[in-house]
Design a protein that fits this description.
Blueprint lengths: L1 H7 L1 H21 L7 H26 L8 H26 L1 H9 L11 H19 L1 H18 L4 E2 L9 E7 L6 H16 L4 E8 L13 E8 L5 H13 L5 E6 H11 L5 E6 L3 H15 L5 E7 L3 E9 L1 H6 L4 H12 L2 E8 L2 E7 L9 H5 L2 E3 L5 E3 H4 E9 L4 E2 L2 E10 L4 H13 L8 E6 H31 L2 H9 L1 H14 L3 E2 L1 H30 L6 H32 L8 H30 L9 H5 L1
Parallel strand pairs: 1-17
Antiparallel strand pairs: 2-4, 2-5, 3-4, 6-15, 6-16, 7-15, 8-13, 9-10, 11-12, 14-15
Helix pairs in contact: 1-4, 2-3, 2-4, 2-21, 3-4, 3-17, 3-20, 6-7, 6-21, 7-19, 7-22, 17-18, 17-20, 18-20, 18-22, 19-20, 19-22, 20-21, 20-22, 21-22
Length: 641
């Protein structure tokens, strides 16, 4: 994610370098013979731009502040990205004010006065000037076009899918494999070895490894009937086709609880819900039999939801257990304590750990328990002698009821309420759309009093993140507007720069729609970065207009035309360089390792494609229409230096 933060910061870093050099070259080429020297011009250019550069950097940083309020698993993912982005932006500003002027003095010292620059820039400038004249002559058309773009983005937003994380194409798959409770180690090992051998024969599978149970000091609370298979996919193989073949093979073993996930998504699911599945419907209620019945009803209701795979109800599996219930009246008459009954029956039937042996880095428990023939029947258990405190004995069957009862192997509860999960994965469909349909199906199921379902999983986490950062994002927008006003010293001009932001964001939304139609948290990070870059471009353009006015250029058509014409090379160079840097990631970023960065790059490229025409055409027209108030001061340039 640190690399992703540096990728997102590319636009600002490139823009910082280009802005300083462009301003210096403009001064250098316009100086007269015998005018100020190169060092003097560099000093003047740096002093003029430092204040605006500081405000522009603060705006860019403020745009990504909501990322620090994500919290939870999402915050753990994206906070390193935001930190790397902020540090890169601050370092870029420092370099632009120190290193860039020094390099300009060394490399551009022999640049001739009165130079015309690149012929390509001159040709583009002539075409742009002609187009801008038409826009400024009829600004309403530009406003209508921008409004249409914004409306298109608003219309497209409801059709976008929502996802916490994009589809991860990791080459390492984790198959959680659990046989029915009570399955022996030998049988679990046999089944696991067989499916592993079958997976190795699939095209695209490089190797398969696994383990059964858990290590002595392991952190996984699983039984001997649980195992994990690690499947490595060949980098040259078709990822989706290979995973489909693996799923088909795993599904060929009925009666076994299995789950196929990439390692990262498996751990994210466990952190969110304790389950590695994407969809978790948790049913709460006091009675286990009712919970099992409603869980099966929920499973049947969700069975035909498109995109649902690996659907199952995780009922509390029961197995026969010996139950010894002390008869307090009989035990009292026989002078037997309940603890004596528990200790004797547990020692004979399930064993009592009395010590440990350590040999060859292995730990062996020393257990005392009854002979096998003692545990063969309930009759033998009833004949067990229970030692009393006076060293005499009483028969177990005389002081307790010994029977066999069905008992859950694991009792799951949360907030003092037992629960049962209905879990599933999502494949081939937007997770948010699947979650919405699951919620609709749950609303149609009637639950008895004291029973209720809760939908958990990645989509619930995503909705929680969006709610947490929404208020912070609104506050950040207000802060950006106030920073624009403080920088430009005009409410009208701040409004000009602020009104151009929606069209820039819409470009990122439309790019996300064209690039797969799913908005993940990585896409939202890209939108925040586009917001900062667009506001930054507006600040520098309007600041240039103000400087031209301070140099006695009268406000009007010619001012709007000249200011935009002079800023054209820097804006185009910055946007083109940023797009060129991010385009390979946006186009070829579907490879494993770039799944989170690719949506961010797509949104930034789309935002730049939209914000560049907005900055070059819409903002000059807005400045000409809105910026004609009486808030400008003739000495504005002197006041800011």
């Amino acid at each position: 994610m640190i690399l992703a933060g540096l990728v997102v910061a590319l636009g600002v870093v490139i823009d910082d370098a280009i802005l300083g050099v462009d301003a210096f070259l403009r001064r250098l080429r316009s100086r007269k013979e015998g005018g100020a020297g190169v060092i003097t011009l560099l000093q003047e250019t740096t002093l003029e731009s430092r204040r605006v550069a500081l405000y522009a950097t603060l705006i860019v940083i403020l745009a990504v502040v909501p990322i620090f309020f994500m919290g939870g698993v999402s915050g753990a993912f994206f906070e390193p990205l935001a930190r790397a982005y902020v540090l890169a932006v601050v370092a870029s500003m420092a370099v632009a004010l120190t290193v860039t002027p020094a390099l300009s003095a060394l490399l551009l010292e022999k640049e001739s006065s009165g130079g015309r620059g690149s012929p390509v820039a001159a040709a583009l400038g002539a075409r742009y000037e002609a187009a801008l004249r038409s826009v400024l002559s009829a600004p309403r058309k530009a406003f209508v076009a921008a409004g249409v773009v914004v409306a298109a983005g608003i219309v497209a937003w409801p059709f976008l899918g929502q996802s916490l994380l994009p589809a991860l194409k990791e080459r390492e798959l984790l198959v959680n494999w659990t046989t029915p409770p009570g399955t022996s180690h030998a049988e679990t090992y046999r089944i696991t070895s067989r499916v592993a051998a079958e997976l190795r024969t699939l095209p695209g599978v490089r190797y398969v490894g696994g383990h059964v149970g858990r290590a002595v000091t392991g952190d996984q609370v699983v039984g001997i009937n649980s195992s994990q298979l690690w499947v490595s996919i060949d980098p040259q193989a078709d990822h989706d086709r290979t995973i489909a073949a693996i799923r088909e093979t795993i599904d060929g073993y009925p009666g076994i609880d299995r789950n196929v996930q990439t390692y990262l998504r498996d751990k994210v699911g466990e952190a969110l819900t304790g389950e590695s599945k994407a969809i978790v419907v948790r049913l709460y209620g006091p009675r286990r039999d009712v919970l099992r019945e409603k869980a099966e009803e929920v499973r049947e209701a969700l069975a035909d939801v498109p995109g649902i795979v690996d659907l199952r109800a995780e009922g509390q599996v029961e197995e026969p257990q010996v139950q010894v219930k002390v008869n307090l009246d009989s035990a009292g008459r026989a002078n037997v304590k309940p603890g004596d009954v528990r200790r004797s029956s547990a020692t004979v039937f399930s064993g009592l750990v009395v010590g440990y042996l350590f040999k060859e880095q292995k730990i062996f428990e020393v257990v005392v328990w009854g002979a096998p023939e003692t545990r063969q029947s309930l009759t033998n258990l009833r004949d067990l002698w229970v030692e009393k405190s006076d060293r005499t004995h009483a028969r177990l069957g005389d002081v307790a009821d010994v029977s066999i009862a069905a008992t859950p192997t694991i009792i799951r509860h949360e907030r003092i309420a037992p629960y049962v999960d209905v879990v599933a994965n999502v494949s081939g469909r937007d997770p948010a759309a699947v979650a919405d349909e699951v919620e609709d199906r749950l609303e149609k199921i009637r639950f008895p009093l004291e029973y209720h379902p809760e939908l958990l999983g990645e989509d619930v986490e995503r909705q929680g993140v969006e709610k947490r950062i929404l208020g912070v994002a609104v506050a950040a927008l207000i802060g950006i507007f106030l920073l624009l006003q403080a920088c430009l010293q005009s409410w009208r001009l701040a409004l000009v720069a602020f009104l151009a932001l929606p069209a820039s964001l819409v470009g990122g939304v439309l790019a996300a729609w064209a690039g797969g139609g799913v908005i993940s948290l990585g896409s939202l990070v890209g939108l925040l970065a586009v917001l900062g870059i667009a506001a930054r471009n507006g600040v520098f353009l309007i600041d240039h207009y103000q400087r031209l006015e301070a140099e006695r250029t009268p406000f009007g058509f010619d001012l709007a035309l000249r200011g935009a014409r002079e800023r054209l090379p820097a804006i185009l160079a910055s946007s083109a360089a940023t797009i060129a840097a991010l385009l390979p990631i946006a186009v070829f970023g579907w490879v494993p390792g770039l799944e989170i960065v690719q949506p961010t790059a797509i949104v930034i490229v789309g935002g730049l494609v939209a914000s560049t025409p907005v900055t070059l055409f819409v903002m000059p027209a807005l400045y000409l229409v809105i910026g004609s108030g009486g808030e400008r001061r003739a000495d504005l340039g002197l006041a800011r230096t």
